[in-house]
What does this fold into?
Amino acid sequence: VTQAPVVTPISSPPAGEMGRGPWPRTARAGGTGVVSVGGVALRQIAAEYGTPAYVLDEQDVRQECRAYLAAFPGGEVAYAGKAFLCRSMARWVDEEGLSLDVCSAGELSVAASVGFPPEKLILHGNAKTPDDMHAALEYRVGRIVIDSLSEISRLAAQVPQRQRVLLRVTPGVDAHTHAALTTGIDNQKFGISMADGAAADAVRRIVAQPCLDLVGLHCHIGSQITVPDGHELAARRLTGLMAAIRDEHGITLGQLNLGGGLGVAYADGDPELDLPAFARRLRAAVDRECAALRLPVPRITVEPGRAIVARAGVTLYRVISVKHRPDGHVFVAVDGGMSDNPRPSLYGASYTVRVVGRPAGSASQPATVAGRHCEAGDILARDVPLPVDIRPGDLLVTACTGAYHHSMAANYNMVGRPPVIAVRDGHARVLVRRETDADLRRRDVGM
Ligand SMILES: Cc1ncc(COP(=O)(O)O)c(C=O)c1O
It folds into this structure.
């Protein structure tokens, strides 16, 4: 059955600011669609650095860091480096006063290379390798988050001096997010269960090791969460465990790390997290619970990754081919795909895509933006409105690609990873250069 394509006029974006939505704060629209970020024309970035390219708005990252610090007065904000990490990013979060959560010797080496204060580093990981552990102890990271029983004796055997640790527990809270992002329930790989007494057992084992200094509890219930109920419940349960630890061991833990997982809008109209209200609810829940249990109020740590960097980033793609299928479907294939953005195939994530610099007022039709890779599932966005006369050579911009894009990028089909270009006050600079064919061949050492 051949269906007539649905054609609607493109609503011209308002001139000037685009509103927050999924876009960086400095994104600007004109009569010609999205035109600039950080005061730099997207066309100019594409011309100078090629496509695909990740573009990162430094000012937006810094403002988000400040918003999180303001929402948790007296608390600690540790940026989760897994979302996106490079030397400049580590420097920015340090300059803004955040701590840093790292998950591997590799992430730690980036932090160390810019002299990130060791006491502000937190090492995570459900399967920390000997290299991860060695790197963390050598750099003297402030805290190591113990994630399994076996890690306790392993760590105790290795530490050269008394090491501060947190215990990651699973509070049995379902954050009702994507299954791959749900980490607060018992039936998944992270942390130690509170429900079956394993967490209490872990505490006993840690306390029995004089070289380990248990300073707090940690949990992370999931990602892309916009309502505080799950974090609030987790905070109450962890506070209860703190009271039990005080009663059994006479130890008052000073740190309550509630993880990250705070969500952002990936598309116009997505639910928005009200950060000040979210933070107030968490703080109030901890205060109330501590008062009831006669426990000193611990310092709250949050570990936002996505919320700090996702909306600061956009990705530029060049249209390579356009196919109009007999059933009316339009496939717009671009020069990137699942290698630079695996999230649609991993989680079914949806994205906002706009054409860069087309005259306003032209008609649009729903199109599927496909990647260049040899998988039918390599789709970046479905049913996004694009001009009816979209053609090879056009430039597309995808919003909200600052988190879990570059850090999750791969080399499928031997495609090099895109560069990361920072923009600020009208200037662009390369943070991470494009990966070349020579880079890829350099690892191929057999013959
Ligand atoms: C322990 C921990 N902290 C923080 C985060 C950051 O999560 P998000 O980027 O959703 O804020 C994660 C994500 O997996 C995590 O596992």
